[in-house]
Specification:
Methane Monooxygenase Hydroxylase, Chain G, domain 1; 2 domains; 206 residues; mainly alpha
Length: 206
């Protein structure tokens, strides 16, 4: 029996896997952190900083994909959260900039991770709409609401087993509640804005 040689080979293989796993976890944390900052940049209208963060995220994502390709059966699961966050940052910017959403294939992002990220965008769009309401910016409120509805409708049409779609159905249910709350806030805001304009016009006519 050559157990020593067998277990030497096993340990070397596992050490390599563990090293790659630690590298993936580190890169994942960097992407998640940078995506959070990039989303804050959007809310603050710091678009130059946003684009710099996205370029950095793209490079790190490529490094992650290379590591995953060494052993996809073990490492694919480590792409779920960073790719969701990456999708959310890109899609959020595309919506408020009125640009086409990027394709998951263009980004080399797993389609389900992309869908999960899109579901999260609805929450960011609500936050964006509420910021606009607080700042009395009403011009794009209906547009934002329509985009939220469109994303929800398309996500809802994905009808596959949970084993394939992971926790997408739960996120879609949450998105529906977020949209209904936002619809109410937008309606009240637009009505208040119309009332304000009527009052201002009445004062001018006096």
């Amino acid at each position: 029996m050559k157990l020593n040689k067998i277990f030497t080979e096993l340990n070397e293989s596992l050490e390599k896997l563990d090293k790659d796993r630690e590298s993936l976890l580190k890169l994942s944390r960097i992407i998640i952190r940078n995506c959070s900052i990039a989303i804050k940049n959007i809310h603050r209208k710091e678009f130059s900083q946003y684009h710099q963060k996205i370029l950095n995220i793209q490079k790190i994502h490529k490094d992650m994909l290379l590591l995953v390709s060494n052993n996809p059966g073990v490492f694919l699961k480590y792409l779920k959260t960073p790719e969701q966050e990456y999708t959310e940052a890109l899609a959020f910017y595309a919506v408020i900039s009125k640009e086409p959403l990027p394709l998951p294939s263009d980004l080399n992002i797993d389609p389900i991770n992309y869908a999960l990220g899109l579901a999260d965008v609805i929450g960011e769009l609500r936050r964006y709409a509420l910021d606009n309401i607080r700042n009395s910016i009403v011009d794009d409120l209906n547009y934002i609401l329509e985009c939220m509805d469109d994303i929800y409708t398309q996500l809802f049409s994905i009808d596959f087993p949970a084993g394939l779609t992971k926790d997408l159905r739960h996120k879609i249910d949450q998105a529906r509640n977020i949209i209904e709350k936002t619809r109410g806030d937008v309606s009240i805001s637009l009505q208040m804005n119309e009332l304000k304009q009527c009052l201002e016009n009445s004062e001018k006519n006096l």
